Fold:
Amino acid sequence: MLRWMRRLWSITVNYWMTKSLPHHCLTGLLLLICLLAPILLFIYYGHIPDRAVSTKKQTVYGVEEFQSGKTETNLLGTSLKIAHRILSHLKDTVLVNVFMIPPSKDHRHKNEPHFKYIVNEPDKCKESRPFVVLMVPCSPAYTEARQAIRKTWGNETLVPGTRILRIFLLGIPAQSESKLQQAIIEESRHYNDIVQQEYLDSYINLTIKTIMGMHWVATYCPHTSYVMKADCDVFVNTEYLVHHLLKPDMPPRQDYFTGYLMRGYVPNRNNESKWYMPLELYPGNLYPVFCSGTGYVLSGDLAKKIFDISLNIRQLPLEDVYVGVCLSALGIAPVAPPKESDFNHWRVSFSTCQYSHLVTSHGFQPHELIQYWNLLQKHKHHAC
Structure:
């Protein structure tokens, strides 16, 4: 036995000494990959649901690269790429896993998607397929704001030949106000554009309101080409949105999400801030890329995908950040609009030239919205 062990050791040393440095590096990298692979698979399959598609893509890509290598140099470069991809993916997987709700057979740990409808419009999309759904979160008491939007950018007949649909998303007031609720019901009967559900209407519940809006679109209007979410104090140039950004004569995009891109934002840990993010809710040091919640656009197919993935992701109080986390979990990155100035999460100084070539401007009272809209309509054909 001792003689055979000495002979094996001699063969191993001779083999190692005759090989080149790149070969040694390749061998070491392959050993590293072999060690990391079980860890990656454990995290990937044991803790994260609904991510099998992206895994298959990465695995297939790695096998193809190994098969195509012809020389030690090519194999070394390929191995470095694969090792880098595995390490990067491991890091991303761990980051996403922080926010994923652990799987449960009885699903009691999932986010609760069901809120009773107080007012609904289930038949709003039955007549024809809309090109774009304007989804507007609004406080129950903001009657004037809703009326200003109906008269201006939310007018469903604004763009001839293009089906536009408008819904306002409402929760229930913090204090029970029977007169206000009765007024909302009457408003709904008159305009048929209110969707109200039984959750508390508050800033911290804006995430619930938006996700419930996605659920409404996915349930009652699944064939819409696009959805635009805009706050009720936002000016939207709907004609510019339709003709210059979405373009009805082009095939509808898929997995499309755009708006004012927010890159490199870190969580605000000041508990007195409106945008406070508790460490226990979001332990990460950086938010994924997201779009300002004042106004963003998504392809119709994304409404269901965002809602479905949200059932497994811990909810965050900042709606736009949360939607960005959902997109990141889906492997979908928001894209920049054609012009950086198309979306604005602040109030742009008014001129008919500027407002003829933007999608959003933020921070308007109802009477200002009507005033600016009328000025734009009056001068839009010779704006600049």
About this structure: The CA atoms of residues 102 and 108 lie 10 Å apart.
